[in-house]
Amino acid sequence: xxxxxxxxxxxxxxxxxxxxxxxxxxxxxxxxxxxxxxxxxxxxxxxxxxxxxxxxxxxxxxxxxxxxxxxxxxxxxxxxxxxxxxxxxxxxxxxxxxxxxxxxxxxxxxxxxxxxxxxxxxxxxxxxxxxxxxxxxxxxxxxxxxxxxxxxxxxxxxxxxxxxxxxxxxxxxxxxxxxxxxxxxxxxxxxxxxxxxxxxxxxxxxxxxxxxxxxxxxxxxxxxxxxxxxxxxxxxxxxxxxxxxxxxxxxxxxxxxxxxxxxxxxxxxxxxxxxxxxxxxxxxxxxxxxxxxxxxxxxxxxxxx
Length: 305
Fold this sequence. Notes:
Layout: H1 9-20, H2 26-46, H3 57-69, H4 74-93, H5 121-129, H6 136-151, H7 155-160, E1 166-167, E2 172-175, E3 184-187, H8 190-203, H9 222-236, H10 244-257, H11 262-269, H12 274-277, H13 287-293
């Protein structure tokens, strides 16, 4: 890390505390660093020279309103408050400030979040069919779409895949760089595996990024992956925005619709708890009702045999 990238020494000490004492994952500490850097730069415009732990609640509310107007979601701003509250609590306990001005602050969502967008099984099939196979790059892009939908990968996880992460014998892939450092192994469906094996044979090489750019052989960026999915959706004539996350949501929803246990889906998707996976129940009309009706103790059960 260069000198220009380092934050205030006190903040750097707090980040070291999170890593070494609190045993937070490097990815989590990096996320906190990004928040504190963003807050430091944003608040320095209105309150130059004043460290974060000496600012008033009004200063933070003003900055959070600026972030809202800039398009930051309520979820992002809640994360900012959580990260900043941790720093301020650390500073207060160390005697650097009189109190934690963010203690007890909660942000209210502007509107309740709706269920995630998912494709129907037919739409997913149309999306794959709309991926051409006439060139190597087209076949690569088709394999990208198949893995996103067939394995429920996040965009960053797919971009980080390396050839050696594919176990062709076990027909599994190893998600090495996952959100929250929750590494996992994901089975590869037969149809996806067939396409992946053909791609690997054509790609050649035993190491390096699984999906590479044509010109310089670098790993595909998240922006490039998003464009691959968007263009495939346009060719398929799908309405509305279709993103890699749409394919991940569709993966989970279609598994749930087939009766796969929520805990299994949570494991496949890299969720910390099955509660995170419960959001997909909202896109299955009638599923909670069907589940309850199935065990209704007073509903007619037919004639006893």
